[in-house]
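FORM 12-B: Structure-to-Sequence Request
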């Protein structure tokens, strides 16, 4: 049947695709992407406390993924909300924080269960802070920036759930398809099903990282593709559209493999930069204030770009009065910068902020 953008795409083909998805060009690119991902998995182990990397990178991903949906906040607002709580944050920052909470929920979910439609529904409920479920009401249309319809997703709860069940089966099937090639196929299919009234893009991008962890391609959630999608937005949307309209799986899969390889290399560079900065902090504090140095102190200073007195006391490094003195001494060394947020003094790790913003 010929695709019509104005009609519900209830004929969206089930998986696996009937065409060849492991061409010579795709397999060649998959080898490079897998190599970069394996190097990233190994590189992550050089950070002494994995939470340092996970906490900071998930904040970046939350911001970037939400930006794709035209939900904008700044790194500073997001880090402050993460440290001080979202009570006084603006609506966009709160929505980005919900995305981060959904991502963590997904990681915890995978410790006991597999990727499933139930998980997808839980993710969108956390993101949207409501009781959203699979679409029941017809009329959903996908439009471009000129408000022209470019795609009408499948309609009817039974139709959508059938396609989601097929997607689950494909995710967990014991086939010989390279997992990164499957990642590209899974991402397209979820976005084409478009099972929810809102939040599909963000749920789909969380599924990406959960799938990589589920396949043991990564130990921890440290590879996020949203920034690549933003920088190569035209290729992203053209790739999705061409699978739908022309059955062009090849160029879409190559795009996704490029995204994995490029992002893995960039993330490795971030890890190296963070480790070098941590070593520099260690060297300076040991030389200038050896009595206050501890491995735990360094880790607290890098667990988030912002820290406060409570960060040191919660980590049971020192008491409140001593914690205040420690942070003032470290600020005098030029390593952190104090600023008042409300009534509280918060200390910024400017070097770490610069690395994360790149």
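FORM 12-B RESPONSE
SEQUENCE OUT:
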């Amino acid at each position: 049947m010929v695709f019509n953008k104005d009609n519900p795409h209830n004929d969206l083909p089930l998986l696996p695709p009937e065409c060849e998805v492991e061409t010579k060009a795709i397999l060649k690119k998959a080898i490079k992407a897998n190599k970069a991902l394996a190097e990233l998995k190994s590189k992550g182990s050089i950070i002494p406390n994995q939470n340092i990397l996970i906490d900071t990178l998930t904040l970046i991903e939350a911001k970037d993924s939400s930006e794709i949906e035209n939900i904008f906040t700044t790194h500073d607002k997001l880090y402050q909300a993460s440290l001080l709580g979202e009570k006084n944050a603006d609506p966009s920052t709160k929505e980005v924080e919900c995305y981060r909470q959904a991502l963590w929920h997904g990681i915890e979910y995978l410790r006991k269960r597999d990727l499933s439609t139930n998980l997808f529904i839980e993710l969108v409920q956390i993101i949207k802070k409501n009781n959203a479920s699979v679409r029941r009401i017809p009329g959903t249309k996908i439009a471009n920036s000129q408000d022209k319809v470019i795609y009408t997703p499948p309609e009817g709860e039974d139709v959508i759930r059938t396609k989601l069940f097929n997607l689950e089966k494909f995710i967990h099937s014991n086939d010989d398809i390279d997992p990164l090639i499957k990642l590209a196929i899974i991402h397209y299919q979820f976005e084409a099903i478009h099972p929810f009234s809102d939040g599909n893009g963000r749920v789909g991008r969380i599924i990406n990282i959960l799938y990589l962890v589920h396949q043991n391609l990564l130990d921890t959630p440290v590879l996020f593709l949203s920034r690549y999608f933003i920088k190569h937005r035209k290729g992203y949307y053209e790739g999705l559209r061409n699978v739908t309209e022309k059955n062009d799986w090849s160029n879409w899969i190559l795009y996704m493999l490029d995204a994995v390889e490029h992002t893995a290399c960039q993330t490795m560079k971030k890890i190296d930069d963070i480790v070098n900065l941590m070593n520099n902090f260690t060297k300076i504090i040991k030389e200038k204030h050896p009595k206050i140095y501890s491995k735990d102190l360094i880790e607290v200073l890098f667990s988030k770009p912002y820290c406060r007195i409570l960060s040191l006391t919660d980590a049971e490094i020192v008491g409140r009065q001593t914690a205040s003195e420690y942070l003032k001494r470290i600020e005098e060394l030029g390593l952190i910068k104090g600023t008042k947020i409300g009534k509280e003094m918060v200390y910024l790790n400017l070097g770490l902020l610069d690395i994360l913003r790149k």
